[in-house]
Amino acid sequence: MKAFVIDRYKSKGALRFTEMPEPDLRDDDVLVEIHAAGLNPLDAKIRDGDFKLILPYRLPLIMGNELAGTVVRVGPRVRRFKPGNVVYARPHQDRIGTFAEFIAIRESDLALKPANLSMEEAAAVPLVSLTAWQALVQRAKLKKGQKIFIQAGAGGVGTVAIQLAKHLGATVATTTSTVNVDLVKNLGADIVIDYQKDDFADVLSDYDVVLNSLGKEELEKSLRVLKPGGALISISGPPDLNFARDNGSGWMLRQVMRLLSFGIRKKAKRQRVRYSFLFMTANGKQLGEITTLIEAGIIRPVIDRTFPFEAMNDALTYIEAGRSKGKVVLKIK
């Protein structure tokens, strides 16, 4: 099968387009022919080696973290899917590889594709929607009447998180550039801060939750936005000790992560707020709940551009520029 791989970690290095063996199928696996794959900043970070300590992949590695496609074959223990089913997923972090024509994926990571989405639209959903779900529903337990600040509202995670937060009954504030103000308002944002004109830390206060997806400066300024007892959830780091434990990291790596997050945890404690790092995990059951929201018209994907499979490196360069609205997708089949 055709696939895009990396042979070694290299900052901004090109992925190699090559032939790879079709994946082996385990007893609880589903073999999926991939029609479309979503791209994410995570793909660039994996390529650059930013996660090689916590995600020790064996190289060469087929890249890619979300997909939509058709079931070709199932393992003997699979019960929920059969050949011909149209599905979408974020594979388990240890078994990525959606920039390819086929992938073997655990049954528990899969969900049926929303009936009202195309393959390309569906491929844009799994990683960002699961990130938003696990941050807002699972981690923050966001409730009606609460206030949440979602950074980078026009980004992949931001566009979904705004819609989910409004569905949960929260007041939503976000940041974006001038050109995307109308986009995030149409998604449901109540307060929109143009970061080219204003500093969110000077405008917002007394918030229950902040979803951080930016750098250290924005992370630390977010503490000023929260009220005592609030929650600062970061999907861009630094990783903390709880994440290290959940990830099964050894003692030494746990200490490294404890030190990496020491500064922000200390400042959060001083402000009487909770800091946590979220690295989303594959979950077919949660994705099924998201499917229900999509088919009800509550959440809709926002797609910036679709690239042909062979232009994968161009697509990755495009998202690294940081100006895409919503998601960028590869059309594979």
From TrEMBL:
Transmembrane parts of this sequence: none
Any one Gene Ontology molecular-function term assigned to this protein's record: oxidoreductase activity
Residues annotated as domain Enoyl reductase (ER): 13-330
Gene3D superfamilies recorded: Medium-chain alcohol dehydrogenases, catalytic domain (3.90.180.10), NAD(P)-binding Rossmann-like Domain (3.40.50.720)
SUPFAM superfamilies: GroES-like, NAD(P)-binding Rossmann-fold domains
CDD domains registered for this protein in UniProt: MDR_like_2
InterPro entries: ADH-like_N, ER, GroES-like_sf, NAD(P)-bd_dom_sf, YIM1/Zinc_Alcohol_DH_Fams
Protein name, UniProt field: NADPH:quinone oxidoreductase
